[in-house]
Amino acid sequence: MTGADGEWSGRCGYTRGDGQDWWENKDGGDGVTVELGAGWIAGVGGKQSNPVWELAHQSNLRTFLSDYSNTHYNIYDHSGKIFPSGIAADSYKKAVDSAIQKLRNQESNLDDDDSILSETTPTQKTPIELAIDFILHDFEMAEVEPISTYVDFGDREYLVADERGYEYLLYKMAESFLDTCEGKIMNSRLQLNKVVGEIQHSRNGVLVKTEDGCFYEANYVILSVSIGVLQSHLISFLPPLPRWKTEAILNCEVMVYTKIFLKFPYKFWPCGPDKKFFIYAYHRRGYYTFWQHMENAYPGCNILVVTLTNEESKCIEAQTDEETMKEAMEVLRNMFGPEIPDAIDILVPRWWNNPFQRGSYTNYPIYVNQQLLGNIKNEYSSHANTQAKNSVGTCMEVIFQVLKQAKFYSKKSERKMKAKLF
Hints:
With 422 residues, this protein is an alpha+beta fold. Helices cover 32% and strands 19% of the residues. The protein has eleven helices and 21 strands. A six-stranded mixed sheet has the order 5-16-17-18-15-19. The chain has a four-stranded mixed sheet with strand order 11-10-9-13, with no helix packed on it. Helix 2 crosses helix 4 and helix 7 packs across helix 10. The longest helix has 27 residues. It is globular, with a radius of gyration of 23 Å. The chain starts with 13 loop residues before the first strand and ends with a helix. It holds the Pfam family Amino_oxidase. Keywords: FAD, Flavoprotein, Oxidoreductase.
């Protein structure tokens, strides 16, 4: 197993303050751990058990239920007034009904790309409609997609707020097959800071070359980098991947999902059971729209988190943190008044500009036909030696796909060894 940087957990990355000023709890002592990447366990409470939720329980991961039921009653306009509950509820219902109708139309026109594209054509909307559209679609899925990925698992979501980080779940999994010591993986089979530059594949196996001049040989390789990395051509293949596979990769969309953390000297926002989240309605869709405080997870931390996606995320990554803080403070003062304090620090992850990530996760575009989906899902192999399949979506799909492919190739190797023995 190789990893391009010093972290083995990929997009389950986190930051811990360890007592630094803006991470420090007001009661002193422990620093606050915030998740830069994966932050929720989605799909809990359904008829089918979610394996990620089971892993979280086994790891005693600290989680909090995210209740979005009252979110659309906490929508602020540009002047700081909260939209009346009746208007908000009506706008929310219309948005949900519209999403359901679009879904039905898409299901009945799966093979008609023109029909599907016409359904996704944006229409002019009011600020509150844009805000609700963002809540329903971008905040959850980072794109306009009204379908829940976790229908069988349930619709509950839990925020991960554990000082060990979301990655601790992955660490506990790794304990079953890698040597560990004092919370660290100590095994030569895991090689970090190894940037893969080239993959050669033939009937004799696979040869992986890294930028520092190392070589790794194997009968099979599971490639788990993001489609964004494949689209960037960071890794070259010899011989090249076939056209049907590269076209499938290039037709996938790379989603960017950014959580910006702002630390304040004191709390000035409303708190309570129905005040975990609040929304800023603006004529620019997704512009500092979705806010949440961290008081439930870390009382006294005085931290706000705002979520941006896609083009807004890319704009943020292209500017300085100081410029981002200025924009965020302007929005907050529109919502809560000019007397609120300035943020004393800011943390801005940059997934899009990270050459080893090139986005937060990938997604099939809504107009993709079934043949293209098959080309993405199907393995590409030179005499079944190279796996070039990519996980699409969130942490959960990554775990599912890697386990599935590992099991597949384990059985294949076992059959090959038995054939040699007998």
